[in-house]
């Protein structure tokens, strides 16, 4: 299985770094008299972390104290350095980082978690906030919103990208119909994995994966894998999809 290339993320983060002077007018206090805000950046693409570092460290009171490419490395940095904020990609590799949120909070109760992700589904926002995150920012808006989210985090507040706030307020919004588990299954289907492979990755039986798939199709009112892929792309669950490969139509 070929791993998705992070083209969309790379261009987004490059734009963020280029826009850093514009973002300098955001509302975070950069007074050097304040104690620096320590950050750990967790994303599985080094180029994304590099762009984030450039964007954030142009602010006088923000200091990146660690970069991690997976959940174990993130937790290690949190245990060792107890940062003020962890900026966490919701998906590192093929699986969700959602379970890392309560682990981070348990390791370092003073650390606040801000999710930075391509995912635009309200179900993910709800699940991450329930898990203990205090911020949720969509990557394409990071140049204008990430600084605000970090400020909210260090001052005891919460921040959710405004475009997702409306979805949270509307229980009938299309993208809020699926549970977080169903969204994860849908995402892996769109990436081209078979039911058997999805089961192995999520520690589920093939029958359970098939049940999830059936519920997803019923909720969305679709009947084909192509429809599922189109939905996943439209809602930002994947950046690219493998459609029509060996997994298409392969129930096992």
Question: How is the topology of this model organized?
Answer:
Layout: H1 7-18, H2 20-23, E1 37-42, H3 46-57, E2 62-68, H4 71-81, E3 85-88, E4 91-92, E5 95-96, H5 100-107, E6 112-117, H6 122-131, E7 135-138, H7 142-154, E8 159-160, H8 162-169, H9 180-190, H10 195-202, H11 206-220, H12 225-234
Parallel strand pairs: 1-2, 1-3, 3-6, 6-7, 7-8
Antiparallel strand pairs: 4-5
Helix pairs in contact: 1-3, 4-5, 6-8, 9-11, 9-12, 10-11
Structure notes:
This protein is of the alpha/beta class and 252 residues long. Strands 2-1-3-6-7-8 form a six-stranded parallel β-sheet, with helices on both faces. Strands 4-5 form a two-stranded antiparallel sheet. It is 48% helix and 13% strand. The chain is globular and about 55 Å long. It contains twelve helices and eight strands. Helix 6 packs across helix 8 (162-169) and helix 9 crosses helix 12 (225-234). It has two domains: 7-169, Rossmann fold (3-Layer(aba) Sandwich); 177-234, Orthogonal Bundle (Arc Repressor Mutant, subunit A).
The secondary-structure element order is HHEHEHEEEHEHEHEHHHHH
Calculate the terminal CA-CA distance, rounded to whole Å. 15 Å
Regarding quaternary structure, what we see is single chain
* Helix-strand makeup class: alpha/beta
Counting structural domains, the number is 2
Q: How much β-strand is present in the residues?
A: 5-15%
Estimate the helix proportion, in percent: 40-55%
Q: Helical region count?
A: 12
**Which sheet architecture does the biggest sheet show?**
6 strands, parallel
CATH architecture of the largest domain: 3-Layer(aba) Sandwich
CATH topology of the largest domain: Rossmann fold
Mean pLDDT: 79
User: Cα-atom Rg, whole angstroms?
Assistant: 18 Å
* Spans where pLDDT lies below 50 across 5 or more residues: 1-6, 19-33, 243-252
Number of strands: 8
Gross morphology is: globular
Q: What CATH first level of the largest domain would be assigned?
A: Alpha Beta
């Amino acid at each position: 299985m070929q791993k998705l290339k992070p083209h969309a993320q790379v261009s987004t983060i490059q734009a963020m770094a280029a826009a850093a002077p514009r973002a300098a007018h955001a509302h975070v206090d950069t007074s050097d008299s304040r104690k620096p805000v320590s950050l750990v950046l967790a994303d599985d693409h080094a180029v994304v972390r590099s762009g984030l570092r450039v964007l954030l460290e142009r602010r006088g009171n923000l200091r990146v104290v660690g970069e991690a490419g997976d959940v174990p490395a993130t937790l290690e940095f949190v245990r060792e350095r107890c940062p003020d904020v962890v900026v966490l990609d919701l998906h590192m590799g093929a699986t969700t980082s959602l379970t890392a949120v309560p682990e981070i909070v348990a390791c370092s109760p003073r650390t606040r978690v801000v999710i930075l992700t391509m995912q635009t589904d309200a179900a993910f926002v709800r699940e991450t906030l329930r898990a203990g995150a205090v911020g949720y920012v969509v990557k394409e808006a990071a140049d204008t919103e990430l600084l605000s989210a970090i400020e909210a985090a260090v001052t005891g507040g919460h921040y959710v990208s405004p475009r997702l706030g409306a979805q949270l307020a509307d229980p009938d919004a299309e993208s809020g119909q699926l549970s977080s588990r169903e969204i994860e299954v849908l995402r892996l289907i769109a990436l081209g994995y078979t039911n058997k492979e999805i089961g192995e990755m999520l520690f589920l039986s093939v029958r359970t994966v098939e049940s999830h798939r059936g519920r997803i199709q019923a909720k969305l009112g679709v009947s084909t894998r192509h429809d599922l892929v189109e939905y996943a792309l439209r809602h930002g669950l994947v950046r690219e999809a493998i459609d029509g490969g060996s997994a298409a139509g392969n129930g096992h």
